[in-house]
Amino acid sequence: MSTLSPIALPESAPAPRTGPRRLPLDPVLTATVIALGICSVLTLRSATSNLVPGDPGYYTNRQALYLGAGLVLMLIISRIDYAHLRRLRNAIYALLMASILAVLAVGHYSSLGAQRSIQLPFFSFQGSEIGKDLLIVALAASIVDNARSLGARETTARVLLAALVPAVFVVAQPDLGSGMVYMFIAAMLLFVAGTPWRRLAAITALVIACIAIVLAGAPAAGVHVLKPYQEQRLTAFLDPSSHSESSYQLRESEIAVGSGGRTGRANPTQIKLNFVPEDNTDFIFAAVGENWGFAGAALVLLLYALLLWRTMRILLMSKDLFGSLIAAGVAAMLMFQVFVNVGMVVGIMPITGVTLPLMSYGGSSVIAVMVAVGLLQSIYVRSRAAYPLGDRVLR
Amino acid sequence: MSALRPSEPRVPSGATPPQMAFRVSIVAMIALAMFGVVLFRLWFLQVLTGEQYVQQANANRIRSIPIPAPRGEILDRDGQPIVTSEETNAVQIVPSALPARPRARASLYVRLGHLLHMEPRHIKELVARGRVDVPYAPVTIKTDAGRGALTVLAERQNEYPGVEQRPVSIRSYPYGSMAAQVIGHVGQVSPGELKMKGFSGVPQGSIVGQEGLEYYYDSYLRGKSGVERVQVNAEGYPVASALHPIQPTAGYNVLTTLDLGLEQEGERALKEGIANARAAGKPATAGAFVALDPRNGQVLAMGSSPSYNPNRFVGPMTEREYHALEGSGGAIGPLTNLATEGAYPTGSTFKPITAMAALEAGVITPDEDLGGGSCITAGAEQFCNSGHTDYGALPLVQALTVSSDTYFFEVGERANSYGNVVQNMAHKLGVGEPTGIDLPSEFAGVVPDARWRARQDQLELACRRRRHVPSCGIVSEVRPWSVGDNMHLAVGQGDLLTDPLQMAVAYSTLANSYEKDGDGEVVVPHLGLAIEEPNGGLVQALPTPHGRKVHLNPADLSLVMEGIHGATTQPGGTSTDVWTGWNQSAFPVYGKTGTAQHENKEDQSWYMCYVGSRSRPIVIAVTVEQGGFGAETAAPIARLIASEWFKQPLKFVVGSSKTL
Question: For a surface tag, which of A259, A311, B425, B626 has the fewest beta carbons within 10 Å of its beta carbon?
Answer without folding.
Answer: B626
